[in-house]
Each structure stands twice: as structure tokens, then as C-alpha cells.
Amino acid sequence: MRFREANELLHDAVESEVQEAQAVPFLCECADDDCLGTVNVLLSEWEAVASQHNYFLMEPGHQHSEGEEVVGSVGQYKIARKPD
Fold first, then answer.
1. From residue 84, how far is each of 1, 6, 39, 66, 81 by CA, in Å?
2. Which among 46, 5, 57 is positioned nearest to 22, based on CA atoms?
3. I need a surface site. Which of 29, 35, 73, 83 has the fewest CB within 10 A?
4. Are 79 and 49 in contact (CB under 8 A)?
5. Is 47's pLDDT higher than 90?
6. Which pTM does this prediction carry?
């Protein structure tokens, strides 16, 4: 969850500065505390995923926790649903 919190801060910091069609490098929101991956997505794409409390954007192959389920994708990145 700490990656989501960092991404929320990033979102708030760049929201008024980024063009609508400009990708932003958000942190991969996988369960690996040592992950240094990023997912380059539009603010609107990240907002859509983040609006679901248990949906997270991550790099392909980064599903680590038991119960995580890939439920979609944004470009080359995966959307995973984590258990509540």
C-alpha cells in the first residue's frame, strides 16, 4: 500500500502541471517492497484504476501476493485486484 500512497502524492503534485495526453511515471504498485519499477500512464488512466480501492497498476509479472488476480491492462501494464 505504500506505493499507492506515494502515487497519490505524485498525482497531487503533478495534476495541474501535466498535459492531458502526457504519460506520468507512477510507481509499480506490486507487493514487492524492493520494486523500483514504474508504469507510464496518463493521469486519467491511473485515476480510473486508483478509484477502486483494491485495484493496482503494476508491471507484467509483478503479481506476488496470494490472491492477486490480473483483471485487465492499461497499455503494456497490468491491473491487479488484491484481496480486501
1. 12, 20, 23, 12, 9
2. 46
3. 83
4. yes
5. yes
6. 0.86
